[in-house]
Structure formats: C-alpha cells, structure tokens
Amino acid sequence: MNYGLTQEVSMILFMIASARRARLLLRVLAVLAAASLATGQEFRGTILGRVTDPAGAALPGAGVTVINEATGVGWQSVTESDGVYAARFLVPGTYRVQVEMPGFSRFVQSGIRLAIGQNATLNVQLKLGNMSETVEVTGQASLLDTTSGGLGQVIDREVVEDMPLNGRMVFMLNRLAGGVNWQVPTFGATGTSGLRPFDNQGGSAWSLNGGRLATNEFLLDGAPDSTRGRYNFSPPVDAVEEFKIQTNTYDAQYGRTGGGVVNIALKTGANDLHGWVWNFMKNERLNA
C-alpha cells in the first residue's frame, strides 16, 4: 500500500475543505459588513432653521447651541453661508436653543419639545445689540414639522404614564391615534386578549390607515422589533419615553412594510435621581 499517495490525497482533500470554509467565512463577513453599513430607521429628531438679521438677510457664521434641558448634553455649530443650521440625532425631549453673533443680542429659546422622529423648524431673527443682552423666549409650543409630509400621531410621555392599561401592554395605546383599528376575532380565556405583553398575536392585530393585519412594522429605538408584522418584544410601560404611530406617506427609510409603523423611543435618563413605586392587581371580585 502506497502511504505517500494516501497522505497526498488526504492533504488535497483537506486543502479543498479549508478553501470552502474560507469562502463561506468571507461570505458571512461580507453580509455582516453590509448590514453594519445599512442605515437603520431613525427615532431621533432634528432642530433646524435659518438665522437672519432684522432685514431678513442670512447671517453666516452665527454660533448655535442646542442643549437638552434634562441631561445638559449639548450640540454646537455655526450657520452655513445661507444662514441655515441643523442639529441632528437628538433624542426626544425638551431643548434650549441659543444663537449668538457679534453685533447682535443673544437669542435664547427654551422649552422646545422635540418628539420622536420630528424635524422641528426654528427660524431665528437676531436683533441689533450687544452679546451681553439676551432676548429670551419661553413657554413656546411644540414646533411644526415642515420638512416631511408624513401622517401620524405621537403618544407622549404624559399619556403613557397617566392612561390606565389593563394588562400593562403599552401597544394598546395605539387606539388613541386616528386611523387605527384593533381587530381581534376572539377574546377571553378561549382566545387571545392582546392585553398581555407576551401575547404578540393579539397585540399585533392592528389595521393602520385601512391596511391589512400583520403588515405593520414595530421599531424600538430605531431597531426592528417585529417579524412578519408581529412585535417581538413589548417594553415595560415605565421604560417608554414616547412613541409614534405613522400611518401614511412616511419616509423611504420606513419602507419595509405594507401597513404602518409603530416607532418607540425608550427613556434615556436624566441628571436627577427619580423612580416609581406602584402595585398592579387584578381580581374578578373588583369587576363591575
């Protein structure tokens, strides 16, 4: 028996198998690299606008500072040649905008409420004066989103915290939005109630703007949270900052569905220590 020939054949087979495994590994790495480069659906917002002088002319080079009032996290930049600025990737919350430029009074506006995925427009007209002088605007209502034609409704933090929820399932608040219909064929012990966080069949039975059931997409901080129209994870109510039900004409970044989009933003924390203490009880003796 020729042991040398046998060893040579074994070595060739080993090299062929190694080459196949290497090609498979390269394909997996290519897929992972492509996935890392893909842009996810965005849940953060943008404050943008144009800075002008009293005559309405653009002011390039004006300093713009956007600060989250809860955390103190800030964003700084200067206006472009046409006076335009854009503070992007801001988490939902309340912000303060400061604009200053030599020869003009400092402009400060606080209490700007930025919702999930919102593009809030704040145009600023500076007044002639010293930078030591401040023109401050407070108590401003939420700014309009004039850059998108999307239709939807934001369920804000106050509603999430104050509305009673049977079963503590946050997605049941979808019913507060216009154009939303919950369609569950069976209810109770023999069927699906949709009131339990782990019950993603009944909890996903939503028709948004007349769309078919199980064709909606659920997002959690911009990441996909659904499979075939059913949510994968229902976050605790106390962990939700706010969410938005987008029913129609949303951006192309949300194009992975034939229905609507439920976009949830989780709480990001703040500089002050706070918490909740509560008790949840269900008893048939309390039924009306």
List the helices and strands and how they pair.
Blueprint: H1 3-37, E1 45-52, E2 63-68, E3 74-78, E4 84-90, E5 93-100, E6 106-114, E7 119-121, E8 124-125, E9 134-137, E10 151-155, H2 157-162, E11 180-182, E12 206-208, E13 217-220, E14 223-224, E15 226-227, E16 230-231, E17 240-248, E18 261-266
Parallel strand pairs: 1-7, 1-8, 6-9, 13-18
Antiparallel strand pairs: 1-4, 2-3, 2-5, 5-6, 10-17, 11-12, 13-14, 15-16, 17-18
Descriptive key words:
single chain, 2 helices, alpha+beta, globular, Immunoglobulin-like, 288 residues, Ferric Hydroxamate Uptake Protein, Chain A, domain 1
Estimate nothing, just give the exact number of structural domains. 2
Kindly report how far apart the N and C termini lie. 90 Å
* Average pLDDT score: 79
Q: How would you sum up the global shape?
A: globular
CATH homologous superfamily designation of the largest domain: TonB-dependent receptor, plug domain
Structural class: alpha+beta
CATH architecture of the largest domain: Beta Complex
Tell me the β content.
25-35%
| Residue windows where pLDDT falls under 50 for at least 5 positions | 33-39
Main β sheet profile: 5 strands, mixed
H-E string = HEEEEEEEEEEHEEEEEEEE
Count of DSSP-assigned helices = 2
Q: Give the strand order, joined by hyphens, for the main sheet.
A: 3-2-5-6-9
User: Can you count the beta strands?
Assistant: 18
* Share of residues in helices: 10-25%
